[in-house]
Specification:
Blueprint: H1 2-45, E1 55-58, H2 68-72, E2 79-82, E3 85-88, H3 99-103, E4 109-113, E5 120-123, E6 136-138, H4 148-164, E7 174-179, H5 183-194, E8 199-202, E9 220-221, E10 225-227, E11 231-233, E12 237-238, H6 240-253, E13 258-259, E14 264-269, E15 275-279, E16 284-292, E17 299-300, E18 313-314, E19 327-331, H7 335-344, E20 349-353, H8 364-375, E21 380-382, E22 385-390, E23 394-399, E24 406-409, E25 412-415, E26 419-420, H9 422-428, E27 433-436, E28 439-440
Parallel strand pairs: 6-16, 7-8, 7-16, 8-13, 18-25, 19-20, 19-25, 20-21
Antiparallel strand pairs: 1-4, 2-3, 4-28, 5-27, 9-12, 10-11, 14-15, 15-16, 17-26, 22-23, 23-24
Helix pairs in contact: 4-5, 7-8
Bound molecules: flavin-adenine dinucleotide.
Amino acid sequence: MNLLLEEVIVYGAVFLLCFIIVFFYLRKKSSTSKQTKKKVEIAKEEGLHEPVSLHPYIDPNICIGSGACISACPEQDILGMIDGKATVVNASNCVGHGACFHACPVEAISLRIGTEKRGVDLPHVNENFETNMKGIYIAGELGGMGLIKNSVEQGQQAIDSIIKSKRKPKPNLLDVVIVGAGPAGVSATLAAKKHKLSSVTLEQDSLGGTVYTFPRSKIVMTSPMDLPLHGKVKLYDTSKGELLQLWNKVIDEHDLTIIENTKVENITPLEDGTFRITTNKEKEYLSNNVLLAIGRRGSPRKLNIPGEDTEKVAYRLLEPELISEKKIIVIGGGDSAVEAVLLLKDANDVILSYRKDKFARLKPKNRDKIKQADEDGSIQIIYNSNLVEIKEDHVILQVEDESTTRTIENDLVYIFAGGELPTTFLEKAGVEITKRFGYIMKQHK
Ligand SMILES: Cc1cc2nc3c(=O)[nH]c(=O)nc-3n(C[C@H](O)[C@H](O)[C@H](O)COP(=O)(O)OP(=O)(O)OC[C@H]3O[C@@H](n4cnc5c(N)ncnc54)[C@H](O)[C@@H]3O)c2cc1C
């Protein structure tokens, strides 16, 4: 009898313990689901739920709810959990680290560009990285393959394909012009040198491409990769500084030059199958092949006003923490312009000039913060205004309904007038483009 009682007590205790564990587990699960649903609602209201570029797609039929993707993502609230399945919350904040894709134990995640509703233009590239235009090749993110390691690999593979194509070298002509010096362009430059091709690399901004624009403190996630002329690079969690230092070192060691601040404007196919490459500088190039490693960010739109080519003008804000006590004018009315103003305003004297009479389509958080800054006088907003000239120590602004222009003391100008996507540039060169909906980016695990 005593034995039976003891057994009942033991089984009862085990049952109670299991019940308590299950109860708390289900309660936690339900509260996590509720919180995530709320975050999804807010993301939809703020226009952040719909992805703008590369983003994870989670197949709910495969997801086992391990949460590995959520822990692996270095950004905040891109992914969440609803009813035991991972889900995308703020998709438009995804920057394409690909950490979720690598962490998923059951391959429920694919990285995609575009959605069912929103198409993205992708050029046609065959397995040799060649486009429909014989002699024009594409490597890296532009062709639909994201991440640093993949771009580095594709840069050298594209050069290998150029060599294998056995296009006859022509006298007085370069073997290849490489456009863009991000991970794909840097790797292609090194591979071209390794194979003794005559080449020139042209970059509209600075060596490093998108990596150059990362914040100094960002953890850059990557995996071991082969860099031509250098060998295996065993990096996992690294920094922009470390990567740029490495690329610059290898380029210097091999006496290579990447021509920065030179934008390729046109690639004209010539009758003999070669190409004339014209830039925003006077020099033009004739080449047997062209490798486009231009990524997907496009080129910043210019205002085409006098003084715009001076050093005090920039189209992106790098390291705002290093800028202080300057008189700054920011041009634009979108999120990039507003975010730049918010980052600069505490340490500088900032004016925001916008050509319209009110902001449209700002993220609600930016709208609230800029309104607050305007009200507390920490910035000045000049609506209905257009920058007409940039001088060394001042700028000239034309404000609607004012008969004379305003002259404003100024040290720095930031222009955020939108970007020109590479689509037109590619079409002009004859490269075919197709709109893809929810295109799956090829990735290596
Ligand atoms: C915020 C952010 C964080 C990221 N974090 C990671 C990460 O942690 N790990 C990772 O693996 N990936 C990350 N990525 C993705 C990674 O940066 C890209 O996949 C990679 O840089 C693509 O390399 P790419 O060489 O194809 O293009 P890009 O790096 O974009 O380089 C293209 C270059 O071409 C130049 N160019 C464009 N047009 C012209 C022209 N007409 N003439 C001359 N030059 C031109 C551009 O100025 C640019 O320098 C991140 C991306 C972002 C935006």
